[in-house]
Recover the amino acids of this structure.
């Protein structure tokens, strides 16, 4: 309990560091405040704080690093909303919805630049290299996914690579840079990085699953958005793989279309085990993350990492989603 309280206190300091940005230009100030007024889970910042907690004598740098991670993540979300033409984010209107796509791109760039200013202030070349590579990989993942729109021949390995680049990579970098900052040994750095990587991929798989929901209130944005945008994600992939010729034709008729019978699409994907096989894949990554966490020798950090994995399993949205699926099956 004490550790959880301490971590929350540190997260509050990180949040303060981000929000206390003084911006004289009104438009930039309004955009910045709007983006950071809502509180997400801050999982990546948590990973950074947990893995850097080996050395709390570097607290000033620890908090800056966690702020950098949060800034990088937020910039990717703002840019994602522009690319996907999303109207909402976490249940509220997106920046590109209230202002414009140009505002979304430019404020995303501004947030990226703030992150890199803080990286230089930390002054650790290994950390700068890792975060620069991670940022490059995230962009790579988005471009690969963009290039794979309506690609019905995509395989599982390619989907997992997209999940790693889009989400797992920043999770991994958050843990790795925290461990590097703390001066941890190579085995410690590798174990926390591996755990975070698998945890990030798990979260992406679960986000893909949540999109295949019948409840917009559950996920805070329109449902079946991935399918409407022509994205082949895990539920569609598994369903299509298991489908006969007739069902394949039906599934193809949904992909990339703005209007279709959502309940009919959901029932077909459910029947073809698109949901259940995606759930099984999620549990595979959960087990891999837990195995990596259990290899961490530091008891406190091991416990904190296992708590994050446990929170992923019993996440509120996820628990509600599973209850809805179970009710549907019964």
């Amino acid at each position: 309990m004490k550790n959880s309280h301490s971590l929350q206190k540190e997260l509050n300091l990180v949040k303060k560091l981000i929000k206390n940005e003084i911006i004289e230009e009104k438009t930039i100030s309004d955009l910045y405040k709007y983006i950071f007024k809502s509180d997400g889970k801050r999982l990546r910042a948590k990973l950074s704080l947990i893995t850097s907690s080996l050395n709390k004598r570097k607290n000033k740098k620890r908090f800056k690093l966690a702020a950098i991670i949060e800034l990088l993540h937020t910039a990717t979300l703002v840019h994602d909303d522009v690319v996907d033409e999303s109207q909402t984010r976490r249940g509220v209107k997106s920046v590109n919805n209230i202002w414009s796509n140009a505002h979304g791109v430019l404020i995303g760039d501004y947030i990226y630049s703030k992150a890199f200013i803080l990286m230089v202030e930390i002054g650790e070349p290994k950390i700068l290299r890792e975060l620069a590579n991670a940022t490059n990989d995230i962009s790579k993942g988005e471009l690969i996914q963009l290039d794979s729109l309506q690609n019905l021949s995509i395989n599982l390995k390619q989907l997992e690579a997209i999940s790693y680049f889009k989400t797992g990579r920043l999770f991994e970098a958050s843990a790795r840079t925290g461990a590097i900052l703390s001066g941890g040994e190579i085995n410690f750095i590798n174990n926390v990085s591996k755990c975070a990587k698998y945890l990030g991929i798990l979260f992406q798989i679960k986000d893909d699953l949540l999109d295949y929901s019948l409840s917009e209130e559950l996920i805070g944005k329109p449902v079946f958005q991935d399918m409407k945008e022509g994205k082949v994600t895990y539920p569609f992939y598994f369903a299509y793989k298991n489908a006969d010729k007739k069902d394949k034709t039906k599934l193809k008729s949904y992909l990339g279309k703005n209007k279709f019978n959502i309940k009919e699409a959901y029932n077909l994907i459910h029947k073809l085990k698109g949901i259940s096989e995606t759930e099984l894949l999620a549990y595979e990554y959960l087990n891999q993350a837990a195995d990596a966490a259990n290899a961490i020798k530091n008891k406190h950090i091991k416990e904190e990492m296992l708590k994050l994995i446990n929170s992923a399993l019993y996440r509120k949205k996820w628990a509600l989603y599973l209850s809805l699926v179970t009710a549907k099956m019964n």
Summary: Confidence is low (pLDDT under 50) at residues 319-330. The chain has 17 helices and two strands. The longest strand covers residues 88-89. The longest helix spans residues 156-182.
